[in-house]
Amino acid sequence: MSRSGFWFLVVGSSAALTHMAVFSLVQREVWPELANALGFCVAFGVSFAGHRLLSFQDAATSVRQSLGRFAVTSLLGFASNEVVFVALLRGLLWPALLALFVAMVFAAAQTYVLSRYWAFKR
Question: Checking CA distances to 58, which of 35, 48, 93, 104 falls within 20 to 30 Å?
């Protein structure tokens, strides 16, 4: 595994745990779809900082350019996450945390490819 791939997994796992922790804390108070969005918003900061400093530290883009591109990348990843999450939660009646976990794994591959080859282009 490449150094970039290793750090992507570490940072991505940290962001995913942050996302799931926020989701778990607020899911009883709001709709699950909103809890998912709140978890995403908090995890975004963890994800961007970690990826910029560790996963893609040799990026040829400026921090500002990377942030803009990563925001687009992350929003696309969140959109696919939310579609899978809702399908599993509402359509197949899966438990919320399991549906969230599967949706996050589904979106991770898309996020890596867009981050590696566009947001933090080398």
Answer: 104
